[in-house]
Amino acid sequence: MSDAATEEQRAAEDAARGQSGDESLPQELIEQLTAWVQHSLAAGGELANLFRLELQLTLGDARRLLFVGLALAPMVLLCWISLGVLGAWLVYEASGSATLGFTTFAALQLVVVAILVYLASRYRRQLGFNRTKTQFKRLVQGVRGEAPRAD
Question: Are 124 and 141 in contact (CB under 8 A)?
Answer without folding.
Answer: no
